[in-house]
What does this fold into?
Amino acid sequence: MADTRTDGVRAPVGGGAGASRPPRVNAGSVATHAALSLGALVMVFPFLWQLLTAVKSLAEVSRVPPTFLPDDWNWTSFDEVFTALPFREMLTNSVLATAGRTAGQLVFCSLAAYAFARLRFRGRDVLFGLFLSVLMVPSSLLVLPQYDIIQQFGLLNSTPALFLPGMFSAFGTFLLRQAFLALPRELEEAARIDGAGTFRIFWSIMLPLIRPALAALAVITAMTAWNDLLWPLIVNTDPQTMPISAGLSSLEGQYETNYPVMMAGSLIASLPMLLVYVFLQRHFVQSVAFSGAKG
Amino acid sequence: MSVFPATAAAKSAGRRSPTSTARPAPRGQRTAYWFIAPLGLGFAVFYFWPMIQTFYFSFTKFGPFGGHTWTGTDNYARVLRDVTVWQALGNTLIYCGIGLLALPLAIVVAALLNRRGLRGVAVYRALYFVPFVTLPVAVGLVWNWLYSGDFGLLNEILGWFGVDRHYWVSDPSTAVLAIGAVMVWSTTGYYLVIFMAGIKSIPQDYYEAAELDGAGALRRFFTITLPLLSPTLFFASVICMIQSLQTFDLIYIMMGEKNPAVGDTQSVVGLFYKWAFIENAQGAAAALAFLLMLLIAGLTYLQFRLQRKWVHYG
It folds into this structure.
């Protein structure tokens, strides 16, 4: 170990690599922790303030200077959110839209990604290039005709309208193709010799092996779907069929300055994805690291 | 520079293996088409066909009862002459410029977290990432409340330092900055995760060697971390630019409809939404969307050209 020697020069007492850390690191690491904690506070405090506001009365939040903790914990704003808007239906719509979009991408992208990574057919590279070109097109270029298509299908103000176009993804195909390419070919060859068909190989051998990539794609798609705003605002204008993101934005129009109600609403709307994040944090981080490693 | 180190190896191994170079049987080819057919169909219906249609729309005018009339380049002329377009374009470029500030912030945090023997790295990363996961509509509402002129917490805190009460989001001179700050706040965690992955791939020996030569923390950051991170930084800046040029959600939420600064803060996509779905000017909206795509393509091309000057591929 090269660093044992160098550390030893500065801290002569040290025996092992761990014990020989120079003492100045401590002062430095206190400063580092201080800076990082300040940053973390800036990141998290708005959410704490959101909760504290949601449980205050309207009279209390209009007080100057503001109180930090509520005089008494008042949960009526949460009830009000549900009477002001069909919030329960909106939550359900969001769950269905998210599930539909995620399931669609997992199925369609993994099938295509496997073909592009492992099967040989005429026009493969041209088709792959064409599919990838979808990545570069801003969504605003597509929504006008997409709206017309949904209308022609008679699907305006329906749950499928929320997830239909989003089920097909160039990014997902690219991500999963990379994962398939990284698997050794010997597995497939062995299975083929044993007489397994292409779909069988895909389904029972290859797909289970790219589980981390599938999880990463699922998580990032679910997040995008839950947070989507522009598309649902366009296709589902009836409050009963809106997802929670669009619903929450209409709450803003109704409760302009009633901040306790708006904070309660936004808390309820963002909580499901936050819970998913808490439990699947590893996959969130992985999905970002995957997407960031294209270069 | 791939996270999938096996990718290149697998590719070349595949090429060398005799079975894969043999001409495939036509039956196998047909199976492959079945694999890509569902996605291909979806792309055709929801992406390729709409692209062609938008291109067509941009040369037409919508009648009040449906139907299009060919108007040549009228829409493009209208877009280029319209003052609100130039204002939206200017705003969008400012959002983009502010949004890019998330990158240096994220790099600094990533470098701090890279400190040897630091505890709680995963906890910090998790906390910094929370704003990125949160519903943008909710983020917009929370920050509107913090920014509120009358009862907002920000004014209260700034008041301790003698700063006067200010209506951050309804004053046109601060609204763009206020929204841009929220963009930086909500994306820093995302880039942090990307940079942490990048820093992890820098060999630890470099730092040890530099330390041996007496390089301080700052020196190590500028001579090791930053140059070796530049490919990641390049990638992140391309993503960041493309995203922020299409910004819509936060502005839509934070400005509402009655805010006097709506026009001063509008982004190109915001203007597109207004034209396409509120004012029924689909033709002009389509032209605007095409110009936005050209802008994105142009700036991305520029970034790729400039990368030679500063990106360091080890």
User: Anything to note?
Assistant: Residues 1-21 of chain A have pLDDT under 50 and may be disordered.
